[in-house]
Design a protein that fits this description.
The protein is α/β, with parallel strands linked by helices. About 35% of the residues lie in helices and about 20% in strands. The structure holds inosinic acid. The site of inosinic acid has 21 residues, from α4.
Length: about 450
């Protein structure tokens, strides 16, 4: 069977803790989109592991697969694998031969396009992670990308590099006016240097038997009765199709992406469990509207600071402080419909303890009308005024003891909050996060037991 984990908001819902917890019951953990723009913090036995590409399950010895829908930076991949080995772990990571490769020039292009947008009044700066994600997916859609399978054949690799590097060099020089020769970027556009480095990476991938035909590999694992966990990165509101375009990433974090990005049939993915991960408030790293943002006056900013500090709301990949807002139900209703959640896990409820007030946005007012889901254009979303419902707050309790005792040990006000949210999302509460450690989760349902 399969369990698919999807971010319901803007990508920082704390998916890593749940993937790690349920990944322990899985035989295979698969990432199906994105690349090293993701950031997972996994805490295991007091040790903290920060991963951006290697699937979180690798910390616990589960097979990790990077599906064909991912964009893989091999430098990051080997850095993370070697880093885990240095700490005494033995990660087993497989990479789809159909996955696309992030090359050094993709990062350069990501940076110069963002800088260009920042300078141009008509440009919309997305605030990307600068990892080359967008340019790599552009090359994929433009049918000039380099796939993991191409790294395994030096002649094919050279042929592909010669075409694409020439193309990208022209764009960098002619469109962005970059003076490549003699600059710090020269190596990123040097076909010989790229060929040498990436052909050697291909050799290591072969030696370590890391590449797979992902669809075929997972088909046989599923047929053999293995439990497969799909680990979505980022979140619904930054999905390229269903998110708030153009402030999005370039892939599909929503559940449909699990089928497309792995080669496992939609009936198999849909026949399993699909769990939406929710943070009990909102946080956003990067630009774009955030109707419930706590930035109206000094009191709101103080509240945002309190939540940010307590929740450790600083980007895992970039270290940027995250913007903070109240929970937004129109966003969550949309997420639940797009992915078809069977259950939800709501994280960070401990962070809300002891706040002077607690609100949830239950709808928006736009041009004098009440709406229940997120508008399709960013311009309309930006003009939405949140309609709030007040909730009773709850005090600090011993969250570790609560996690041990179970759901009924949660404060009454917390349970009311959680049940209201799950009901609005038409799903059941499967888990509640009450602290950063894997043990600090109140598990109501293990989706692998369903
Ligand atoms: P990109 O994915 O680097 O192209 O960035 C596009 C947008 O997605 C930016 O707003 C990023 O901040 C955001 N983003 C990308 N990955 C993540 C993530 O893992 N968590 C939260 N936001 C992300």
């Amino acid at each position: 069977m399969t369990v698919t984990i999807v971010g319901s908001q803007l990508g920082d819902e704390g998916k890593g803790a749940l993937v790690d917890r349920w990944g322990g019951d899985a035989d295979v953990v698969v990432r199906y989109q994105g690349g090293d723009n993701a950031g997972h913090t996994v805490v295991e036995g007091g040790e903290e592991y920060k991963l951006s590409l290697v699937p979180s399950g690798a910390v616990r010895g589960t097979i990790g697969v990077l599906g064909n829908g991912c964009v893989v930076n091999p430098r990051t991949l080997f850095e993370e694998i070697d880093g885990l080995r240095d700490r005494g772990l033995d990660p087993d990571v497989r990479v789809a031969r159909r996955a696309h490769v992030i090359l050094p020039y993709h990062r350069v292009l990501d940076g110069i396009e963002e800088a260009g947008k920042a300078e141009d009044e008509s440009g919309v700066e997305v605030g990307t992670t600068g990892r080359g994600i967008g340019p790599t997916y552009e090359d994929k859609a433009g049918r000039r990308g380099i796939r993991i399978g191409d790294l395994l054949d030096p002649a094919v690799l050279r042929e592909r590099l010669e075409y694409v590097v020439d193309h990208q060099r022209t764009i960098a020089e002619e469109v962005y006016g970059l003076d490549i020769e003699g600059s710090e970027h020269a190596a990123a556009f040097d076909v010989d240097a790229l060929h040498e480095e990436f052909a050697a990476i291909g050799e290591r991938l072969v030696e370590d038997e890391m590449t797979v035909n992902c669809s075929d590999f997972l088909y046989h694992r599923n047929e053999a009765g293995d439990r497969i966990l799909f680990e979505g990165a980022q979140g619904t509101s930054i999905d390229i199709d269903h998110g708030n375009y153009p402030f999005v990433t370039s892939s599909n974090p929503t559940a449909g992406g699990a089928a497309v990005g792995s080669g496992v049939g939609v009936t198999t993915v849909g026949g399993g469990e699909v769990v939406g991960i929710v943070k009990a408030y909102l946080s956003r790293v990067g630009s774009g509207p955030l109707p419930t943002e706590l930035d109206g006056d000094a009191d709101e900013e103080a509240l945002a600071d309190e939540i940010r500090e307590k929740g450790g709301e600083f980007g895992t990949v970039t270290g940027r402080p995250r913007r903070i807002g109240w929970l937004d139900l129109p966003m969550l209703r949309h997420a639940s419909r797009v992915s078809g959640f069977t259950g939800v896990a709501i994280n960070h409820v401990d962070v809300l303890a002891g706040l002077p007030e607690l609100r949830v946005c239950v709808g928006y007012e736009l041009d004098g009308e009440r709406i229940e889901t997120v508008p399709t254009t960013t311009d309309r979303w930006e003009r939405c005024e949140p309609i709030y419902r007040e909730f009773d707050t709850w005090s600090e309790v011993d969250w570790t003891a609560v996690a041990e005792s179970g759901y009924d040990a949660l404060p009454t006000a917390t349970r009311e909050y959680l049940e209201f949210v799950a009901d609005e999302m038409d799903a059941t509460v499967y888990a509640v996060g009450v602290g950063p450690d894997r043990e600090e989760t109140v598990e109501v349902v293990n989706p692998f037991d369903e």
